[in-house]
Amino acid sequence: MFQYYFLLGVRSLRRNPALTALMVLTLAVGVAASVATLTILHVMSGDPIPQKSSRLFVPLFDNAPTKGYKPGDEPNDNQLSYRDAVNLLNSKAGERRTIIYGVALSIEPARKDVGAFTAQGLALTGDFFNMVDAPFLHGQGWSPADDKAGADVIVINRKLSEQLYGDANPVGQRMTIGGFQYQIVGVLDTWTVVPRFHRIMGNDEGAFDEEDKIFIPFSNGIRHEFQHNGSTSCTDDRGPGFQAFLDSECTWLQGWVETRSAADRAELQSFMDSYAIEQRKLGRLMRAAPNKLYDVREWLDHMKVVGNDSKLSAWLAFGFLVLCLVNTIGLLLAKFSVRASEVGIRRALGASRREIFKQFLIETTVVGLVGGALGLLLAFGALALIAAQSKTLTVVAHMDWVMLLTTFAMAVGSAVLAGLLPTWRACQVTPALQLKSQ
């Protein structure tokens, strides 16, 4: 019977083309608006590294002065000073550790057809690549010895490699960056992390910035005195020069620690608390504020990667979907009301209310399927328009299989929900009254 009722539903679409088109379009527009917004929210709030998100931590110490501080106040910044970052790096905390700061360095290609340009990247330690499971196309990261020596070695991303060397493997070649000769030791494969959890701070687009093109050893950036490309917060009067900047309490570095398991979090927190006590003996960290520790998901929440405006947009989109459902209910009532005589005759011939209910509900499901298909096309169009607005939106405005299935489920579910009242009303038709009116 399901197949028969389904075919009846398909045929019913042609009985009143104008009314059917209006129902389908109303449902499709509501689904498209809500799905497009939900898709962006889904991508923005996703777990960027689910296999490790409970084992990667951001440690924070409040090194600001005590003046004006009240217990319970939030730290003045979400980064580390050079002293705290280096002490963390040299400690035995966790299984792996890295510290990061942004750089923007000039590249002088050997190719004559490519002019000099500036590339954004990161100065960090070699453990970073294993910590975040970065995929390599060629070569590998640098060694701990290179970290210690501040060696002139570099990892570049695939896009930069193809720009400078085409399809050739550039590992072992040398390139001029920031006025210095660097040896390429690795090429990262295409690697789009969404959200870009490891370096939210210090760039214009935040968690949805494009891929970094260059990666150099942290100690190398310090040795060459490469300036920090990102946000810096200073609460003391530092002297002139790069060394004075390093010795200051300015916060400008991002720290990450990987533990063997999520259960080791307490041990890491204990290390941080012990470290803070030792530093207070040296006249630092005098606020005695709680030392913060965030795993990946907590860090994204703390940095408000998904802002209240994004959540509000999602609620407004669903409100629009509800409005479309109300209109669809009215259209279905109008469609089913003109078929009262048909229902009366079927009831007189022995059809039960259950069968009538099943028939009309399957018809609304057909409307939902057609509306879902159209809604999916409209959603793709809406996402394409959103992605065209900026590079940042291109990263988040794409639909995966989860959202694809959600679109159809939402369309069919909305149609069935909208059809419950009209279908119930159709089942209440009295056969005798309809037969008398014929």
Automatic annotation (TrEMBL):
Arranged from A to Z, the UniProt key words for this protein are: Cell membrane, Membrane, Transmembrane, Transmembrane helix
Presence of keyword Cell membrane:
yes
Domain MacB-like periplasmic core span(s) in chain numbering:
20-269
Q: What is this protein called?
A: FtsX-like permease family protein
- Cited InterPro entries: ABC3_permease_C, MacB_PCD, Macrolide_Exporter_MacB
Q: What is its main location?
A: membrane
Taken from the record, one Pfam family name reads FtsX
The organism is: Duganella aceris
Report the superkingdom from the record: Bacteria
Transmembrane region(s): 21-44, 312-338, 359-389, 401-421
Q: Does the keyword field hold Transmembrane?
A: yes
Where is the protein found, in the record's own terms?
Cell membrane
Membrane association type: Multi-pass membrane protein
Q: Where is the ABC3 transporter permease C-terminal domain positioned along the sequence?
A: 316-430
